[in-house]
Every structure is written in structure tokens, then in C-alpha cells.
Design goal:
Two copies of one chain form a homodimer. By secondary structure, chain A is α+β, with helices and mostly antiparallel strands. Chain A is about 50% helix and about 25% strand. The interface between A and B is large, with 39 and 39 residues. Chain A binds a DNA duplex through α8.
Chain lengths: ~200, ~200
DNA sequence: CGTCTATTTGAATGTACTCAAAAGCGGTGG
DNA sequence: CCACCGCTTTTGAGTACATTCAAATAGACG
């Protein structure tokens, strides 16, 4: 199962699985190839799965009535992604998940995940840690959105997630930070003006 | 253990404990009374515990250099609260947690929680669910902060958390929504103007 | 090479902020 | 119990910041 080495290493950081548990777990994973610009999830659909990204790059965003995009998150290698609110509540998705590059993901459906928790309770620990870290990250993001300027948030973003930069446009960063692309452009220009002679 | 009936009911919603597990769990909980206006956590301190609120009302907020408060969350009966980012990363707290009314909480320290996970792995499930729901809630809040107006966020807030209203001032709601109290005041005034003749 | 989208620039606009001051309200102590 | 004090809410004027709109330039991709 050479396919699964990345996700198994990810999991091994937090829990240990024997051969049988590993085989059962990997049997639940559905590998999917997502071509660049195609969608893993669209607003209004049921969000019944979480996705582990093996390769490529994905972006989750919301589109409001007036056509404005807001990016909720990016995900590359070794990240998990889903519309968690709709996954939990079973309401129609509010997010679109789109491939920014040809990507390879492993899909885990909600009912399979629940079965996994019953059969291999160790996975409760694994996902408890994942969810706890995700919660901590989002709580920090809320705080930073409330307290920091666009310039400060931009700097934190590019320093925290340098791996994302090759995949994403400045417009998409703007939609993540919650400002217009025009405004972010001037912010970045004024930043560099201070650096270059 | 009449003290613990509320938290045990909270836990029973997700997992079942036998007598021995219940006794062990409750032995880890430190009851604390917090007088109105006193602090459970201050910025800069180590954040080594999570708190379950039995009664009263708490508020977690950040204070920036310029003296501006930003409210991260409120918590009343039957809620868990902590500075999750600093709890996880073991960095100094970025949040202050203050009692808005005389409150009673149960404190669970991080090392005890880790011990609990080892001795009663069922609790992994319980906290996985708590963390997952918290993550979903924060992800939704990020999205709403990016896409909705102050008026829309205000309406969602008061409809979603009516239990909070008796405890909190409009100024505190403003600091939760990320606007100034003056601005929220005019927003609310303009809302009611549409309702009253 | 041509098309489409992203980035940059600027002008005009509007939204939310700061500052200041008055009014309202709750809590505390005399 | 009432008067005072401090904090919140309200109101308004002036300001700053971020937006919209438009148009030009630059880049990416088929």
C-alpha cells in the first residue's frame, strides 16, 4: 500500500496502529484525483466527507450573492480539509472546495468515520488532536482578524504558510484576509517601499 | 457528588461512564468560585487548564497595546472555556478570562487531562466531539466575519446566544463583533427604526 | 499569438472610526 | 434611601481608511 505511506506517517505521529487496524483503515479511504480547477465540493451539496490531501493544493471558499469570494482555508500535502460546520450539522455546504493544481486526495465518508471510531477507538484520539489543533488555529485567526491590520495579517500569513505561496494568487490571499485585491496591492506596495532604498 | 451532576449530564450526552470511571474523573476536577470581575486567566500567564462553567458567566478577551478589547468568546452554564491556542502550544496566554457574574467552574489541568485520556480512553471521544463542534463553530464565525455586515452579525449573535444577553453589555457585543461601541449603537438604532412606526 | 485573468494605479465614494460631550444607568457608601 | 461616582450608551462632527469603479499594464495559459 505504497499509496498510503504519507497518511500513515501523519497518523503515526499521534497513534500506533497494528497491521490489521492499518488494513481496515486504508480500506475505508477512497483515492480521488482532482484536476486543476475542478471541484471537490460545491455550495448547497451535502458535505459527507473529510479529505486528506496527498498532493496538489486545494482552496475552500464561499461565494456570496454579490459574487464576492471569501477564502476559508487552503490545504496542501498532508492537510485535512472539509466544510466542518456542514459536515457536523449535516446542512448543505456553505463552502466550495476547488483544486488549485492537479491534486490527489483520500476521501473518508462520515458514516465510515463513525464506523472507524467504533471499530478502532484509537482514532478518537487521532481526530481529537486534529480537531483540537484546528480549533486552536481558528480561534487565533478570529482574534487576529479582530485585532490586527491587513498588513500585519498579510505578514503573518506569508510567514506562517510559505508552502502555500507558490500555489496562490494575491487576490486569493486578499479573500482570505478579508480585504479587496486592490487594497492588498497597495498594502504590499507600501510594505516593500520601506525595504527597498 | 451532587456538585457534579451538571457536568456528568453533559458528558453522558456523548459517552457512558461506570461508577469507577465517574469517580476517577470527578476526582480530577477542582471546583473554583470566581467572584464577579475577578480573573480566571490573565494574558502572559501559562494556560494549563480548561474550565467547565457550572454557573455564572465568563468572558474571554484580548487587550491590545492601545487598550482596545476584543472578545473571543463568552461562556455560561454547561460551557467549556479556555485559551485553546495557548493551552495547546503552551505559550503564554493571549486571552484574559474574567467573571461577568459570580461564577462556579470546574478546573481540569492539562496533565490531568492527559492522564485521563490514558486511563479512560473514552474521554478521547468526548473531547473529540467537543473540539470538533468548537472547530466548526469557529470556522463559521471566520466565514461570517468575512462575509456579513455588522448588522447581520449582530442579529445572528443575539438569536444564536440569547442566554448571554442578560449578562453582557452592548459594548462587549461590539468587541465580539469587531466594531466600536459607538458604531454598534447606531447600527442597532437604525435596525429598530425599521420596526417601530 | 491571442485571450483571459491578475495586478496595478488613480479618483471618487462611503463606511466605520476617533474624539468629544451629554445623557442614562447601576452600584456603592454615607 | 438617596446622592454620588463611574461606566455605558447615545449623539454628532470631522476624519481616515478601505471600498467601488474604471482603465491600463502585466502575466499565464491554451
Amino acid at each position: 500500500m505504497i499509496h498510503f505511506s504519507l497518511i500513515l506517517k501523519n497518523i503515526a505521529q499521534h497513534i500506533s496502529l497494528d497491521k490489521e487496524e492499518t488494513d481496515y483503515f486504508t480500506s475505508l479511504l477512497q483515492p480521488r484525483k482532482i484536476a486543476k480547477k475542478s471541484f471537490l465540493l460545491k455550495e448547497g451539496q451535502a458535505c459527507q466527507s473529510i479529505y486528506y490531501v496527498q498532493s496538489g493544493a486545494l482552496r475552500a471558499f464561499h461565494l456570496d450573492r454579490r459574487g464576492k469570494e471569501s477564502t476559508i482555508t487552503f490545504a496542501i500535502n498532508d492537510w485535512w480539509i472539509t466544510d466542518m460546520y456542514c459536515f457536523v450539522t449535516e446542512q448543505p455546504a456553505m463552502q466550495n472546495i476547488v483544486a488549485m493544481a492537479d491534486s490527489s486526495v483520500l476521501q473518508l465518508q462520515k458514516y465510515e468515520l463513525e464506523e472507524l471510531f467504533i471499530k478502532v477507538p484509537k482514532f478518537e484520539r487521532f481526530f481529537r488532536i486534529i480537531m483540537q489543533n484546528s480549533y486552536a488555529r481558528e480561534q487565533l485567526r478570529v482574534l487576529q482578524n479582530l485585532t490586527l491590520t491587513a498588513e500585519e495579517r498579510y505578514n503573518i500569513f506569508i510567514n506562517k504558510y510559505p508552502q502555500f505561496i507558490p500555489h496562490i494568487s494575491q487576490k486569493q490571499i486578499a479573500s482570505y484576509l478579508g480585504v479587496t485585491p486592490e487594497f492588498l496591492c497597495t498594502v504590499v506596495k507600501n510594505m516593500t517601499r520601506g525595504i527597498v532604498s
